[in-house]
Amino acid sequence: MSSQFTPYSNYKYQSMSETIAVCVCTCMRPQMLERCLLSLIQQECLDDWNLIFIVVDNESSPNNQSLVERFQSKTNFPVVYRHEARRGISTARNAALEEALSHKADWVCFFDDDQYADKQALKWAYSWMKEHDASVVSMNLTYVDQAYTPSLEPIRDEEKTRARALQTCGTGGVLFSASLIHPDGLALRFDESYALSGGGDAAFFFAAFKKGAKMIRSKKAVVFEEITGEHFKLRTLLFRTYCTKLQRLKMNIKYRRLAAVFAFVLSSILFPIAASIELFLLPLYRIYSKRFFHKRLASILRKYVRLVVLLTCPFAKPQMYKKIIGY
Question: How many whole angstroms from its chain centre is CA 239?
């Protein structure tokens, strides 16, 4: 792995007062977006921070402009609205990156519009970035039920300072150095061939890792993501599993991660065998508990999904982001 990537020693990306671009891409989820932005403008900040909030509206019309602009009166930091009519999550993310660079951001942070952050999430991510000399910090994503009000669970002492090394991550709660996207740095962008399929964020950060970027996960920087009733539907669960695993397999093939590809091929053969054996236990699961039965059924079917991914990988082009789940 290259050792050329040293963002902290490069004066081009640092200033005495550091600017963090906090970016949210949104599409057809206005209520979730409002909750997300409210959690972001309430973040605890360090004295030398300059925040700029960037919202990229990926709907065909600028439907969320007035909602976003209302937040300017609630914060002393600038709130930027940008409409990107070309549909696709990668397209929207690249628009956010261009805005971040135009405002000379030292750091870029992404949240999904169906998420909301603990008030100390950004501060913890930033402190871990500095403490561990990392260029990317992935936050601790916690899934919550639609009807559940989350609370922070205590973190064990040994996990408070443990930085888990990563090779890639998603954009659902991530802070990274602007040197990843700066023309004088790595000049990375999200691959727009992933616009509707998903997986572009994993490919983006793995490309950074291959070029020497240090990537870690912070347990203390907590972000919540709401799981709606639609997520629990079996067809939705299986389709999203299929899309996620397919894009990860394609990425591993593209970057010639032979060990990861071999492991997936092997599991695609062994997992369905194990699932077929467990099928005989389903009647007993149903007697024990209806909820447990549905949970195990979903697990069994997800094992078969691996085989479907393997067989369809050369030609499949699913569009997970064509349908938006949320409100």
Answer: 18
